[in-house]
């Protein structure tokens, strides 16, 4: 079964139902592994052409707003292997409108504390030593969103593998703090498991976005009709004649 799943933050029951119809390899997991391979052509110091095999795998999860289709947060671990050399990159993408100088804080939570986060319970002071924190800066912004990347060394990869979830903290343009939760349930299974068919993943995502767009249009039409019905119920009030200017 293909590991196709998308995490919707909230929205109408119809959109949620469509989300659940997308097959997943891990219950309650939105993590998926996508891989690609190719050839890198370069030249050595003598100008001789060299060809190297490149393998790229991206284990990622997305939180998508069920009402607008906007990706609220995209998180993933990139594994880039060129011949025998491998590099890992932890990547985040946030929507436009964040305060770039503030940067991003990523806090990793163990299972017991993540349960508190999901219940919106306040953490005790003695819980703080159990948290693992990473500070990251924005790399660039484009139409997709604002990108954050950091080399994923052993310590960071271990955080991803052993934590129950993490919270991405930044600030929006008015300077208001924003906390975005990313559960890590299913991350390890996706990371070590087989890659998902990229084409089928793209098709499933396209269907989801189409469903959201159709639902938005439906809600707009319903709102428009309600406004029209409300206007019909209002008494007809003739417009007031303009005041006659006083005679000089």
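Sequence proposed for the structure above (248 residues):
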């Amino acid at each position: 079964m293909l590991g196709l799943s998308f995490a919707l933050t909230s929205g109408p029951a119809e959109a949620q139902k469509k989300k659940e119809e997308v097959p997943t390899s891990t219950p309650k997991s939105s993590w998926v592994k996508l891989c690609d391979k190719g050839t890198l052509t370069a030249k050595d110091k003598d100008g001789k052409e060299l060809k190297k095999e490149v393998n790229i795998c991206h284990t990622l999860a997305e939180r998508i707003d069920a009402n607008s289709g906007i990706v609220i947060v995209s998180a993933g671990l990139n594994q880039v292997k060129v011949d025998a050399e491998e590099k890992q990159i932890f990547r985040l993408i946030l929507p436009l409108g964040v305060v770039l100088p503030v940067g991003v804080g990523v806090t990793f939570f163990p299972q017991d504390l993540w349960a508190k986060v999901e219940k919106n319970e306040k953490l005790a002071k003695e819980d703080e030593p159990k948290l693992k924190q990473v500070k990251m800066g924005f790399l660039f912004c484009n139409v997709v969103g604002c990108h954050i990347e950091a080399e994923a060394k052993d310590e960071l990869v271990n955080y991803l593998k052993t934590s129950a979830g993490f919270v991405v903290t930044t600030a929006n343009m008015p300077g208001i703090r924003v906390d975005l939760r990313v559960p890590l349930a299913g991350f390890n299974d996706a990371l070590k498991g087989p890659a998902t068919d990229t084409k089928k993943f793209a098709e499933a995502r396209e269907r989801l976005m189409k469903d959201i767009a159709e639902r938005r249009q439906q809600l707009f039409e319903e709102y428009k009709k309600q406004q029209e019905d409300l206007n019909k119920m209002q008494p007809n009030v003739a417009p007031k004649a303009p005041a006659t200017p006083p005679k000089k």
